[in-house]
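Technical annex B. To support the medicinal chemistry partners, we prepared a structural model of the target in complex with oxa(dethia)-CoA, based solely on the information shown next.
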Amino acid sequence: MLALTGRTRPRARLTGVASYLPERVLTNAELETMVDTTDKWIRERTGISERHIAADDQATSDLALGAAQALLRSTRTSAADLDLLIIATTTPDHIFPPTATLVADQLGATSAAALDINAVCSGFVYGLAHATGMVESGLARKVMVIGAETLSRIVDWNDRSTCVLFADGAGAVLIEADDEGDPGSGVIGFELGADGSGKDLLCIPAGGSRRPARSEGVEPADLCIQMAGREVFRFATGIMVESATRLLQEAGLTTDDVDLLVPHQANSRIIQHAAEKLEIPPEKVVTNIDHVGNTSSASIPVALAEAVEQGNVAPGDLLLMVGFGAGLTWGAGLVRWEPRT
Ligand code: UT7
């Protein structure tokens, strides 16, 4: 970790992205055999056709490591050069040690500080904002931010209203210091927020310090995701538009300046609604929920990696990322895509 030196502050740049999805694909047809649901219902109400599920011997750190290694390869970065590794996750390998320390060790990131953050589905945008702050304050020059989840481990496979939604995966980005960058380049800014009064709308009721897993009366379902779907849907459609609008206004930009909206992949109807309200046409919206499902903090970097792989992002493009989720939390980020050449 570098110390704050007082020299001209660098700008943070997003220079690379990569993802890792576990091999196993769970289709809607298979879910039809597990709970009272249909492929038609899932596709029409959520936009999901299939999703990836971690193998029994894979934990969140394994998925994160896959994304991290792919990112180091594609950006030709040495793990030893990383100053900081942040993992946004709500499904850490353990309560402690942090999953980030496990990944840093496996990666050979011997000079990196490492920590996990949990802002649930907003976690990746929160992590990006923290990385930006560390780089622009001069405290770090190379930061890897990973969003990684094995939600299959905390899903109630008997609850049809949630088990059809959530999935596993990991996405990673590299944030680097740029001493020359112009204003308007690099990471432009963030709008982050939280409203804990909505804590019960989406939560895991037990397993923490308030109701430990071993407490009397704790049922297996109490250790799994429980969601008031309609209420969360209403919150999501509103906050995506509000957060993105506030951020664009603060930055002196409009949606016309946005080249690509990279939203949290929770439900294709939520994405469509937000894009319409923001007046962003469908060709500028990244949607991969049909084959990836909702991977919480991994969903935005996984979607961005796919857009880059498919050649849908050009250097200099302005990306608007918007996440929302349990907490309740939300976060929007405006970032230029400036890959290493
Ligand atoms: O990433 C974290 C943030 N999470 C979200 O943003 C999720 C937000 N919520 C949603 O995406 C939607 O609310 C859901 C996809 C979860 C549910 O869709 P909905 O259109 O809001 O359905 P609903 O909850 O209003 O339920 C409608 C009906 C109910 O049956 P009745 O009471 O009308 O007879 C449900 O029991 O659909 C039923 N239902 C299902 N039917 C078949 C719920 N889940 C299923 C299912 N298959 N999997």
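Notes passed to the chemistry partners:
The radius of gyration is 19 Å.
The pocket of oxa(dethia)-CoA is lined by residues 37, 41-42, 45-46, 121, 160-161, 164, 229-230, 232-233, 236, 266-267, 270, 294, 296, 325 (CB under 6 Å).
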